[in-house]
Amino acid sequence: MTGRTHVVRVWGMAISFDVRESRPDLDDVLAPVDTWFAFVDEVFSTYRPDSAVSRLADGRLAFDDAPRILRSVVERCDRFRDETDGYFDARASGSLDPTGLVKGWAVDIASDFLVARGIHHHAVNAGGDIRARGCPAPGRRWRAGIAHPHVLDAVCAVVEVPDGGAIATSGTAERGPHVADPHTGRPALDLASVTVVAPTLATADAYATAALAMGLNAPDWLAGLPGIEAVVVDAGGYIWRTAGLGAPHALALR
């Protein structure tokens, strides 16, 4: 199965599209992806004072007057806040900041766009978070290595990503204690990393962030979520996984 890689640079990262299909019009099919991410940045960048999300956050733009796409994302953030008992909260900082959801949501839409145009075998990697469709080669599945949060350049697990599924990790190894418990305001330090496999990258991203904020209560919460698999590494290095990742070759501990 042949194909090519397409890279979009946005939000200070490279979002790579690994397409495992060969078509003469592939460049034309992939071109709108760049436009899509540029549009998302215009609407959702909290670093741009003229963006719709910045104007909504500081009161210059009323919610009912905001672009429909922004209202939809904010409402989805509110649903995730309810689903996670407030541990995923786009308003935790005291101001609206939906960026914890936007990356995964934007990747999901880009992937759906490719499927709608007949590109059924691809994986989108956005800073290590992945949305996978189809397969990389006949008889194979997309696989993602989970960086070990305590050992430099080591992998603590390898997880198969199902067709149409996604995997996201939230942790302290690269960015330090950047997630806080919204209920206390204190940095979330009990867990070193949380990796979630979910049907969409937006869901995987939101749940991984929420679970990291929950700390030691995260494994019980994750185990009770239907259709969700997870790998959790605590601050002491203990590795826990959901039962669904116990199948042969689904999880390989290093």
Strand content: 15-25%
Average predicted confidence as pLDDT: 92
The general outline is: globular
Q: Share of helix among residues?
A: 25-40%
Q: How do the SSEs run, as a string of H and E?
A: EEHHHHEEEEEEHHEE
SSE-based structural type: alpha+beta
What is the radius of gyration?
18 Å
- Please report the first level of CATH classification, the CATH class: Alpha Beta
Which strand order spans the largest sheet, edge to edge or round the barrel? 1-2-3-4-7-8-9-10
Q: Mind telling me the CATH superfamily name?
A: ApbE-like domains
How many strand segments?
A: 10
Pick out the low-confidence regions.
247-254
Structural domain tally: 1
Distance between the termini: 29 Å
CATH topology: T-fold
* Annotation field: number of helices: 6
Biggest sheet statistics: 8 strands, antiparallel
- Reported CATH architecture: Roll
